[in-house]
Write a structure and sequence with these properties.
The structure is a single chain. This protein is mainly α. Helix 1 runs antiparallel to helix 2 and helix 1 packs parallel to helix 3. It has one domain. The chain is built from 4 helices and 2 strands.
Length: about 120
Amino acid sequence: MARTDNDMWSPATGVGATATMVAAARAVATRSRLIHDPFAGALVRAAGVDFFIRIADGDLDIFDLGDDAGFARMTELFAVRTRFYDDFFAEAGRAGGHPPGGDPGVGAGRPAVPAVVAGGDHGV
C-alpha cells in the first residue's frame, strides 16, 4: 500500500502492529533472560493491543498459541539476533568502534560498524 500525505497508522495497526509484535517477543525473551530490553513490555502496554499485552506480561504462554510453536521460534530468533548485535556493538564500542578482530585501518580511519537495515547488516 502506498503512503499518502494524510494516511495514518499506530502501534496497533499496519506496520506498527508488526513492531508491537516484535516488542512482545522481546519482552518474552527479556523475561526468559535471553536478552535485556527493559522497554519492550512498556511499549507493548502503551500500544494497547490486548493479545500482545497478554504475551508480553506472561499471561498468555507463547507455546499455547496453537501455531506449532511458530511465535515461540520467532521469539527465540529475535532473541538470538538481538543478543548477537548487542554483544557485537558492545565489543565494537570497547574497541573504539571497530568490529571485533577487525582492521582499525579499514574505512580511511572511520570506525567499521555495520548499519542494521531491515534485519540485514550492511557495512558502511
